[in-house]
Write a structure and sequence with these properties.
There is one protein chain. By secondary structure, this protein is α/β, with parallel strands linked by helices. It has a 7-stranded mixed sheet. A 5-stranded parallel sheet has the order 10-2-1-14-20. A 3-stranded antiparallel sheet has the order 5-9-6, with no helix packed on it. It is globular and about 65 Å long. The relative contact order is 0.18.
């Protein structure tokens, strides 16, 4: 027992080393925020930054790294490396940079693809500090209204609406007001959520410390003793919530946000859900000027260090030397391959694309590679509907908030039935619909597009429903495909026009849908998934959390983005921070936290003077 105790104490001390240790240059070592520059809304000017096409002559000499994919997991990491003097090339297969943060324009309407709202962006929070430093303070965030979400349950003749407010005190207080007699259940839900989320620090540490140490911490049971996150990870959201209350409406309100990671409550980990609830406790924000502002302000920092971000640059394979060490990538330029050499390659293309499409067959078959692939599976396919409207937000009754609309409060049954139906039946009634108005959230919208508004509608759809058209031309996949898309569009519109009576068909100037195969084409999602690797309970076991890490089994090949850490914008950014921590041999999570505390202290002193 004494020996075991000594070993455990030594392990804890080693863990603390990976919490607080660091020896390489620190990209968060100083406050790099600059005074705000004049906003650029002209698309041609912005495209000079966002749409720099790949040519062999544009590849910088003496690269330190190549990053595959320009989502925030790739761009964010490139900025971190650039800030310590690294020359990085980011390659993007699409015709514009940004990944799920890119925008597109149709009939004069600009649409965001993946940013709907982001939490934890109050002044001086670590996440706000990270983004301020990674854009030199040029990215502005606009708070949504409070309540920022509305949960709407039931059919038109019996619709119930529950507003979700921010604030550690107000969030539960408003729930108690709507659900008298359920005070104990609400208090216990909040207690479990906060305690579980607090333990997520060990999730990062298991990915940063050496794998043998991580395995020891897991197999001795230390992981679950040190972190309540891992104790709750194998418990489903349905199991935990059903144990708190018999009230089906309250259960639904507790669990509604499962749509932001794509798992129905019975298959979702309570640990993952806790992270999402706490993420929005302080409110929600939207990028002023739209999500393309993120890439637009990151790219100049990469270029200043001698790097570049080039688009229309599909990487078709990763290059290896005769020792099976990564040494660069091959880019398809027409029918020819252009080889780009670098001592390090980092993939933001997702674990499935990286291992199954970009590795040579013999390396793909490596036991360590196959073991990692066996631990994960594809997430659910995403369905997006983009609506361009004539009219201002006031004329159309649009607000800077989101609406989660469900056919009823029995989420598990609804989603099971929907996902198990044939595509024609499924298209007739979508059980879950997220509705947000990017134009209403962005204070610069009226200046850029006066008299117009947009809606983003989001749900889920099976890849197999659309798979037969995957090899067709993206702009013309055939009449059958268009008819199926239109059926989903019509179902969604019926819901929207009922909830928003000022929106009528004559106000609609543009409408189209992006299906799972659309996602595959534009963002490289293998099965059309929004959120990368599936976010079910197995993903959050200590074993999988430790195994899926920035380092791959192949020397000088790393992973970044949402498959490394968590899904969504913040999860992908934390994937970049985690990968950067490994490459730079220091804990950037802690570095950003310390800089946030430092700037908060300095600002307080200045205000007190």
């Amino acid at each position: 027992m004494l020996i075991l105790f000594i070993v455990c104490v030594f392990s804890v001390l080693l863990i603390l080393k990976y919490v607080f240790g660091g020896s390489e240059p620190n990209p968060f070592g100083k406050d790099c925020r600059e005074p705000l520059k004049e906003k650029v809304y002209d698309k041609k000017e912005k495209n000079k930054v966002l749409k720099q096409g790949f040519l062999a002559g544009k590849v910088p000499d003496n690269l330190d790294a190549v990053i595959i994919g320009s989502g925030v997991g790739g761009l964010g990491l490139a900025v971190l490396l650039a800030k310590v003097g690294k020359k990085v090339l980011v390659l993007e297969q699409h015709d514009r940079a940004g990944g799920c943060c890119h925008t597109f324009t149709e009939k004069g309407f600009e649409f965001d693809v993946g940013i709907h709202y982001v939490g934890e962006l109050s002044e001086h929070t670590p996440l706000r500090c990270m983004l301020d430093q990674m854009t030199n303070g040029q990215l502005e965030w606009e708070p949504l209204e409070d309540a920022y979400d509305h949960v709407i349950l039931g059919p038109p003749e019996n619709r119930r609406s529950y507003p979700i407010y921010s604030g550690s005190a107000r969030f539960p207080a408003e729930l108690k007001r709507r659900f008298p007699g359920e005070e104990n259940a609400i208090d216990e839900f909040m207690r479990l959520v906060k305690k579980t989320e607090f333990g997520a620090w060990l999730l990062a540490v298991l990915k940063l410390c050496p794998l043998p140490l991580a395995k020891f911490v897991i197999h001795t049971g230390l992981a679950k003793h040190l972190s309540f996150f891992f104790k709750m990870a194998p418990r489903s959201l349905t199991e935990v919530v059903n144990g708190l209350t018999e009230n089906k409406e309250l259960r639904a309100v507790f669990t509604y946000i499962f749509g932001t990671y794509g798992k129905r409550p019975k298959d979702a980990s309570f640990a993952m859900h806790s992270i999402l609830i706490t993420h929005y406790l302080s409110g929600a924000w939207y990028p002023k000027g739209g999500s393309s502002e993120i890439a637009y302000h990151m790219i100049p920092i990469i270029e200043k260090a001698g790097g570049a971000v080039l688009v229309r640059a599909p990487v078709n394979r990763i290059l290896f030397n005769n020792k099976n060490e990564t040494c660069g990538v091959s880019v398809l330029k027409g029918q020819e391959e252009v080889h780009v050499h670098a001592p390090m390659v980092i993939s933001n293309a997702g674990i499935f694309n990286t291992y199954e499409k970009l590795l040579p067959k013999e390396l793909r078959a490596m036991p360590d590679v196959q073991k990692q692939l066996s631990m994960v599976k594809h997430g659910e396919g995403g369905l997006s509907i983009f609506v361009g409207l004539n009219g201002t937000k006031e004329e159309l009754g649009l607000k800077a908030k989101n609406y989660w609309i469900f056919a009823e409060n029995n989420f598990d049954e609804l989603m099971d039935k929907y996902m198990n139906e044939g595509r024609e039946e499924a298209s007739k009634k979508i059980p879950l619909l997220f509705v947000g108005s990017p134009s209403a959230k962005d204070p610069s919208w009226e200046e850029r597009s006066p008299g117009k508004s947009t809606l983003s509608l989001v749900s889920f759809a099976k890849y197999s429903w659309f798979e037969e058209w995957k090899d067709g031309k993206v702009t013309n996949r055939g009449d059958d495909y268009k008819e199926l898309k239109q059926a989903f569009i019509d179902s969604a519109l019926n819901v929207v026009m009922d909830v928003f009576p000022k929106i009528t068909r004559d106000k609609i100037e543009y409408i189209d849908a992006g299906t799972p195969i659309t996602n595959t084409h534009y963002i490289g999602a293998p099965e059309g998934e929004f959120y990368g690797v599936d976010h079910g309970m197995s993903r959050f076991s200590p074993e999988v959390s430790a195994a899926i890490r920035p380092q791959t089994p192949l020397k000088n090949l790393y992973l970044t983005g949402q498959d490394v850490f968590l899904c969504g914008f913040t999860g992908a950014l934390l994937g970049a921070i985690t990968c950067g921590s490994v490459i730079l041999n220091r804990n950037l999570h802690v570095d950003s936290f310390l800089l946030a505390m430092k700037t908060k202290y300095i600002n307080k002193k200045l205000k007190d003077k």
